[in-house]
TrEMBL record:
UniProt signal peptide: none
Stored PANTHER family: ABC TRANSPORTER ATP-BINDING PROTEIN, HIGH-AFFINITY BRANCHED-CHAIN AMINO ACID TRANSPORT ATP-BINDING PROTEIN LIVF
Matches recorded under InterPro entries: AAA+_ATPase, ABC_transporter-like_ATP-bd, BCAA_Transport_ATP-bd_LivF, P-loop_NTPase
Source species of the chain: Rhizobium vallis
Example GO molecular function: ATP binding
Protein name according to UniProt: ATP-binding cassette domain-containing protein
Length: 230
């Protein structure tokens, strides 16, 4: 099992935000994490990455339990986290951002990322910080692909992006997951969009798993609306 989370609880110091979450992801599997604002989705992603505090439970990669607060162990295992701030290096060019990712790669990447994101090729000498949000997200995903990631965890994939860019990101993620066997764990404000990319879904309510299952089944479940309505 690539990622195995068992009864995970925690948050920030002694403030418990996430309660008793269990989930698994195998190579190439895709999982959407949904829930109302403030229900703990970002905190859970940060806990997985070792960037927030764990009070109980285990996180294992390839069957090996990770010590708390160990983000380096995750990147060594081929797990990449894209925060909602995108996480590009703003004062490096697009090309430098990508080269840096290749230098720190978990494994060699044979993908031509410009074939997925042709607009980046046109802007390879532009500073990443001067790009639009949509192009920065493309740089961030391209960097994750260049590092040979086995699992890409994305917080707020499409927030604030125009529809044509959203469509491109969806197409690329569906393709790399299916063709390259890259696993995805996604948070997005648009539940239907997240479920169109991910085969499975888990919905948090007040930091606890409320419902989970196949996206195709849960997308029509009336409980989903109740759990997402503000
Ligand atoms: N650094 C922090 N210290 C203490 N509490 C925090 C911290 N960051 C977030 N929180 C709190 O944790 C709770 C969950 O926030 P989180 O960002 O994980 O939710 P979310 O489901 O991702 O929501 P959103 O969709 O609005 O980003 C919120 O009540 C938030 O105020």
């Amino acid at each position: 099992m690539l990622l195995d989370i068992r009864e995970l609880s925690g948050g920030y110091k002694d403030i418990e935000i996430v309660n008793e979450v269990s989930l698994t992801l195998d190579e190439g599997e895709t999982l959407a994490l949904l829930g109302r604002n403030g229900t703990g989705k970002t905190t859970l992603l940060r806990m997985i990455m070792g960037l927030a505090d764990r009070s109980r439970g285990t996180i294992s990669i390839d069957g090996v339990p990770l010590p708390p607060r160990s983000p380096a162990a995750l990147s060594r295992a081929g797990v990449t986290f894209l925060p909602d701030t995108r996480g590009v290096f703003p004062r490096l060019t697009v090309d430098e951002n990508l080269r840096l990712a290749r230098m720190n790669a978990y494994r060699r990447c044979s993908l031509d990322v410009f074939s997925y994101f042709p607009d980046l090729a046109l802007r390879s000498h532009q500073f990443a910080g001067t790009l639009s949000g949509g192009l920065q997200q493309q740089v961030a995903i391209a960097r994750a692909l260049m590092t040979g990631s086995r699992l890409i965890i994305i917080d707020e994939l499409t927030q604030g992006l125009q529809p044509s860019i959203v469509e491109l990101l969806v197409d690329v993620l569906v393709a790399v997951s299916a063709q390259q066997g890259i696993a995805l764990l996604l948070v997005d404000q648009n539940p239907q969009l997240a479920m169109s990319i991910c085969r499975r879904v888990i919905v948090l309510d007040h930091g606890r798993p409320a419902i989970s299952g196949n996206s195709s089944v849960l997308s029509a479940d009336p409980r989903l609306t109740d759990l997402l309505i503000v």
